[in-house]
Write a structure and sequence with these properties.
Strand content of chain A: under 5%
Number of strands of chain B: 22
Helix content of chain B: 25-40%
CATH topology of the largest domain in chain B: Rossmann fold
Mean pLDDT of chain B: 90
Radius of gyration of chain B: 25 Å
Radius of gyration of chain A: 22 Å
Distance between the termini of chain B: 49 Å
CATH superfamily of the largest domain in chain B: P-loop containing nucleotide triphosphate hydrolases
Number of strands of chain A: 0
Strand order of the largest sheet of chain B: 6-7-8-3-9-10
Helix content of chain A: over 70%
Oligomer: heterodimer
Largest sheet of chain B: 6 strands, mixed
Number of helices of chain A: 15
Chain lengths: 365, 507
C-alpha cells in the first residue's frame, strides 16, 4: 500500500507521453535491427515520408483528419465512463448513410448534398451506437462487449450490402458506383489554388477544417457546457449523478449517440473527400486507431490533435518506408502502432515512479 | 514505572509531501487501556498501521516488551502478539464463528482436528474474558456487537497481548458500547494491553488510563485520563479553545412542511427496509433521527430526497404529494426544484465528485440554474464567483476555487456541500451525518449554521449515528430500529439510556 508518486502537472501531461513514445520507438528499433535493417535510417525515411515533402504532409494530414474524428468519438464516450470500441462499425454504417444519400439525391447541388450526407453520416453512426447504448442503459449489457460485437455485425451487413445490393452493375469489385461530383468535398489544393497557393494533389480536403472545428466544439461542450458537466459527472461518479438528479441512462444513450456521430464523420473524410465511392472495408481500422488516439491524447482535444497527427504520420511515413524498404512490411508498421498503444495505454505509468524520483532530485538542486 | 508493552521511539512517516507522523515517541504500559485521539488526518491511523505492519516507518524504532522489533507485515505483527480489530469487520458472513476464527490460522493436517482444537481453546477464551459467543452461530446472523466480539476473539486466538481497536463504537448502540467496555476492562485485568483509537471524547474519559493526543502528525499531549476533562482534550485536539456547548434557543415550530404517512420500502429481494413510517416536520424545527447505522435511516433519506422510490405510503411536502409526482427529470431533480435540499450521508461518494474542482462541485445538482448560463454554455465566471462566496461565507480552507475537492479535508468538503444546498434556499433540508469524519473545529461551525437555518424558519431532518449530535441539535427525536420507528420523544426528555434502549428495539 504505497502512495502513487506525484508528478508535476506539466511532466504528467507532456513528459510522460513523450517518454512512452520513445520507449515504443526504441523497441521497434530493436526489432528492425533484428531483421537486419538500420533503425536510424528507417526512422529518417519514415519522418521524411510523413513530413519531408508537400505531398507527404498532405497525406499525413488526410489520415490525421479521420483519426481526429474517431479519437474524439472514443474520448466523448470515455468522459461518460463508457468505452466505445465500436467506432469502426459506427463509421462503416455511417458510410452506408452517406452512400444512400449520395446515390438517392445525386442531383442536388453541393451546398445541399454535402451537408445532407454529413447529417446522414452522423445519424447512421449514432444509430449504430444507439443500440448498444440502449442495451447498456436499460438492460445492463456491457458496452465494451456489445460495441465489439456490433463491429462484426456491421462488417457482415456491409459485406452483404456491397456484394448483393450496392455493387456497381457489371463490376467485380464490391464497391458502389462513383458518387455525383456535387457530393465531393472540395480538395484543399483545389480550394487554395485560386488564392495563389500551389499545393500538390493529395486527398487532403475541407473535412480537415471540420475536424479542427470539432476539436474546438468538443472542448467547449465537455468543459464549458451543462451537458458536458453532466456527462463527466456520470463518468466520474454515478452515485453523485443520481444524487444530483441527473438521468444517468438518458445521458449514457445521448453520449453514445454523439460518439457514434463523431465516428461517422470520419466516413465523410474517406468517402466524400477521397474515394468518392464506398469500397468494402473502407474503414480499414481507423475506428480502432481512434481508441489509441484517445488514450494517448488523454481524452483532451489538444492531446487528440497531437496523437492523431502522430498516427497520421505513422501511417503515411510507414507506407513510404515499406515502399523504400521491402523488408519493412505493412505489418511492421502495425506492430509499431501496437507498441505505441502498449506503452502509452497499458504501460502508461511505467516511468512514473523513476521519473518522479529523478525530477525531485533535479528540482531540488 | 511499570513495564512497557509497546514503546515507539522517534517514528517518522512521509507520504510524498505529507509528513503523516512526526517524531512520534511514547510508551504504553502493560495491562493498561491507552487512548489515541485526534482529528481526521491527525495521523492516528497511519501510526497504528505502522504498528500493525501495513506500513513501514521511514525512521524510528518500535520496542515490544522492551525488545526492539521490526514489523514487516500484519502476519509479523500477529506473530509478535499484536492484534487489531478494524472498524469494518473482516469476517466471512456465511461461516460459523468457529470457522471464522480458525480461518488463516489452521493447524494440523485436517480441518476437523484443527476445528476441534480451536473449539477447546475458544471455550477457555470465552470463559476468561466473558465474551459469550456461540462458536457454532453463523456470523452473518449475529448482531454487530457480537460480530465485533468475534473479531476480538480472532485476535486473542492468535495470541494477541496487545489489542488495537479502531473506532470500535462507531457501529454500536450505547448499551452495546458499554458491553464492549466491560470486555475491555476484563482484558485489562487479565494483563492484556488495549489501544483504543477514537474521536469520541466521552469514551476516552470513560475507559482509558492514559491518552495520547495527536494533531497534524505530531503528539500534542500525553496525559493520565484521570487528570483531564472533556474540554481539555478537545482544546488539545484542535489547538485552540473549542465551545462544545451549543446555545440552543427554544424552537418556534411553524407550518407543517413534511408529512410522512405509512411509508414502506421493500427491496427487489422482498426485504422490508422501511416499515410503516409516520412522522411530520414543521418549519423552524429540527427533527433528529437516531439509530444504529443500517436501521433504515439511509433508506428514509433516499426516499425523501427522491433517489429511491417508495413501495407504498404517502409523503406530502407543503401539501404536494411527492410519491406520485409527475416530472420529466428524475425525482431527485424534481424534489430539489420544489425546495428540498439534501446533504447526503455518504459525502464523498454521493455529495461530491472527487475529481471535480471546488467550483464544479459548487453547482452539482444545481447545474440548471439560469444564473450560471450564458447561451448554451456555462458562465464560468459566475460559477467561480458563486464558489468564492461559498468559500468566504463558510470559511472553507484552503480558499481555492480550482483545487480538486478530493484534496480538501472532510470538514471543508462538507462545508462546500452545505453552502451549495443552503444557497438554493430550500424549505426542507435533509441532512445525513453532517459531521461524520469532520474535525471538531468544523463541527462547531456546522452545528451553529444548522441552528441558524432552523431559526430562519427552515425545517430540518437530521440523521446521525452520533447520539451527542442528535441530542444537541434536535427539538424532537425519532428513533429507528430495523426499518421501523421504535419511538419518538422531545429532545428535552431524551437521555443516552432512553435512546439507547429504543435504538436496540426495546419499546
Amino acid at each position: 500500500m504505497s502512495q502513487p508518486a506525484n508528478l508535476p502537472r506539466w511532466a504528467a501531461l507532456w513528459l510522460m507521453p513523450v517518454l512512452n513514445l520513445l520507449a515504443a520507438l526504441l523497441v521497434s528499433g530493436l526489432v528492425i535491427a533484428l531483421i537486419g535493417e538500420d533503425p536510424i535510417e528507417c526512422l529518417k525515411l519514415m519522418i521524411n515520408g510523413a513530413f519531408g515533402y508537400p505531398e507527404g504532409i498532405g497525406y499525413t494530414l488526410f489520415y490525421t483528419t479521420s483519426f481526429i474524428f474517431t479519437g474524439l468519438a472514443v474520448a466523448a464516450a470515455f468522459h461518460a465512463g463508457l468505452f466505445n470500441i465500436g467506432g469502426e462499425g459506427q463509421m462503416y454504417l455511417a458510410g452506408l448513410g452517406v452512400t444512400l444519400v449520395c446515390l438517392q439525391f445525386g442531383g442536388l447541388p453541393a451546398w445541399l448534398l454535402i451537408p445532407l450526407a454529413m447529417l446522414a453520416a452522423m445519424v447512421f453512426g449514432a444509430g449504430w451506437a444507439f443500440i448498444p447504448a440502449y442495451l447498456q442503459a436499460k438492460r445492463g449489457s456491457h458496452i465494451v462487449v456489445t460495441t465489439i460485437m456490433f463491429n462484426f455485425i456491421a462488417s457482415s451487413l456491409m459485406t452483404w450490402l456491397l456484394v448483393d445490393k450496392l455493387r456497381m452493375p457489371g463490376s467485380q469489385t464490391p464497391a458502389t458506383v462513383e458518387f455525383a461530383k456535387s457530393a465531393w468535398v472540395p480538395m484543399l489544393h483545389e480550394l487554395l489554388a485560386p488564392l495563389g497557393f500551389a499545393l500538390p494533389n493529395t486527398p487532403l480536403n475541407a473535412t480537415f477544417f471540420l475536424a479542427l472545428l470539432a476539436l474546438v466544439l468538443f472542448y467547449l461542450a465537455v468543459w464549458h457546457s451543462p451537458q458536458g458537466f453532466v456527462t463527466r459527472t456520470v463518468g466520474l461518479n454515478e452515485k453523485a449523478a443520481r444524487y444530483a438528479g441527473i438521468p444517468v441512462d438518458k445521458v449514457v444513450i445521448a453520449v453514445m449517440c454523439v460518439s457514434g456521430a463523431l465516428a461517422g464523420l470520419a466516413a465523410i473524410n474517406e468517402l466524400l473527400g477521397s474515394t468518392h465511392r464506398m469500397n468494402m472495408g473502407f474503414t480499414n481500422g481507423i475506428g480502432f486507431v481512434g481508441i489509441a488516439v484517445a488514450l494517448m491524447g488523454r481524452n483532451h482535444p489538444v492531446g487528440i490533435l497531437l496523437s492523431a497527427l502522430l498516427f497520421g504520420a505513422l501511417t503515411q511515413g510507414g507506407l513510404d518506408l515499406s515502399f523504400e524498404k521491402p523488408a519493412i512490411t505493412r505489418e511492421m508498421i502495425i506492430f509499431t502502432q501496437g507498441l505505441i498503444i502498449l506503452f502509452c495505454g497499458a504501460l502508461e505509468n511505467l516511468f512514473q515512479t523513476p521519473l518522479s524520483i529523478a525530477l525531485k532530485r533535479i528540482l531540488k538542486k | 514505572m511499570a513495564e512497557l508493552a509497546i514503546e515507539l521511539i522517534g517514528v517518522n512517516k512521509h507520504f510524498g509531501e505529507v509528513h503523516a507522523n512526526k517524531d512520534i515517541s511514547f510508551g504504553i504500559r502493560k495491562g493498561s487501556i491507552h487512548g489515541i485521539i485526534g482529528e481526521n488526518g491527525a495521523g492516528k491511523s497511519t501510526l497504528m498501521s505502522i504498528l500493525y505492519g501495513y506500513y513501514q516507518a521511514d525512521s524510528g524504532a518500535i520496542k515490544i516488551n522492551g525488545k526492539e522489533q521490526r514489523i514487516r507485515s500484519s502476519q509479523d505483527a500477529i506473530a509478535k502478539g499484536i492484534g487489531m480489530v478494524h472498524q469494518h469487520f473482516m469476517l466471512v458472513d456465511p461461516f460459523t464463528v468457529l470457522e471464522n476464527i480458525v480461518l488463516g490460522a489452521e493447524e494440523g493436517i485436517s480441518l476437523e482436528s484443527s476445528l476441534a482444537a480451536a473449539r477447546r481453546h475458544l471455550a477457555e477464551l470465552n470463559r476468561d474474558y466473558g465474551l459469550q459467543v456461540d462458536p457454532d452461530a453463523v456470523v452473518g446472523e449475529l448482531g454487530v456487537g457480537s460480530q465485533q466480539r468475534v473479531e476480538i476473539l480472532k485476535a486473542l486466538y492468535r495470541g494477541a497481548d496487545v489489542l488495537i481497536l479502531d473506532e470500535p463504537t462507531a457501529v454500536l448502540t450505547p448499551q452495546e458500547a458499554d458491553d464492549l467496555f466491560r470486555i475491555l476492562r476484563l482484558l485489562k485485568q487479565q494483563g492484556k494491553t488495549v489501544i483504543l483509537i477514537t474521536h469520541k471524547l466521552r469514551e476516552v474519559l470513560d475507559i482509558t488510563d492514559t491518552v495520547t493526543v495527536m494533531r497534524a502528525g505530531e503528539i500534542v499531549g500525553q496525559v493520565n485520563t484521570a487528570e483531564v476533562n472533556k474540554e481539555d482534550l478537545a482544546d488539545l485536539m484542535v489547538g485552540r479553545k473549542v465551545n462544545l456547548q451549543l446555545d440552543k434557543t427554544p424552537a418556534k415550530p411553524g407550518k407543517l412542511v413534511l408529512e410522512v404517512n405509512g411509508l414502506n420500502l421493500t427491496d427487489e429481494r422482498g426485504v422490508a427496509l422501511l416499515k410503516d413510517i409516520n412522522f411530520s416536520l414543521r418549519a423552524g424545527e429540527i427533527v433528529g433521527i437516531a439509530g444504529v447505522s443500517g436501521n433504515g435511516q439511509s433508506e428514509l433519506l433516499e426516499v425523501l430526497s427522491g433517489m429511491r422510490e417508495a413501495s407504498s405510503g404517502s409523503v406530502r411536502f407543503n401539501g404536494t404529494e411527492l410519491t406520485t409526482l409527475k416530472s420529466r427529470d428524475p425525482k431527485a431533480a424534481a424534489y430539489r426544484q420544489l425546495g428540498i435540499g439534501h446533504v447526503p450521508e455518504d459525502r464523498s461518494r454521493e455529495g461530491l465528485v472527487k475529481d471535480f474542482s471546488t467550483f464544479e462541485n459548487a453547482i452539482l445538482g444545481h447545474h440548471h440554474d439560469k444564473s450560471i448560463r450564458r447561451g448554451w454554455l456555462f458562465n464560468r465566471k459566475a460559477i467561480v464567483e458563486r464558489c468564492r462566496r461559498f468559500i468566504t461565507e463558510f470559511d472553507v480552507r484552503p480558499a481555492l476555487t480550482h483545487r480538486r475537492i478530493g484534496l480538501f479535508s472532510g470538514g471543508n468538503q462538507q462545508k462546500v456541500i452545505l453552502a451549495r444546498e443552503i444557497h438554493a434556499n430550500p424549505e426542507l433540508m435533509l441532512i445525513g451525518q453532517p459531521t461524520r469524519g469532520v474535525d471538531i473545529g468544523a463541527i462547531e461551525f456546522i452545528h451553529k449554521r444548522l441552528m441558524q437555518l432552523r431559526d430562519e424558519g427552515k425545517a430540518l431532518l437530521l440523521v446521525s449515528v452520533e447520539l451527542d449530535e442528535i441530542m444537541a441539535l434536535s427539538d424532537r427525536i425519532i428513533v429507528m430500529n430495523a426499518g421501523a420507528i421504535s419511538g419518538e420523544l422531545p429532545a428535552a426528555e431524551a437521555t443516552a439510556t432512553s435512546l439507547g434502549l429504543l435504538m436496540g428495539g426495546h419499546k
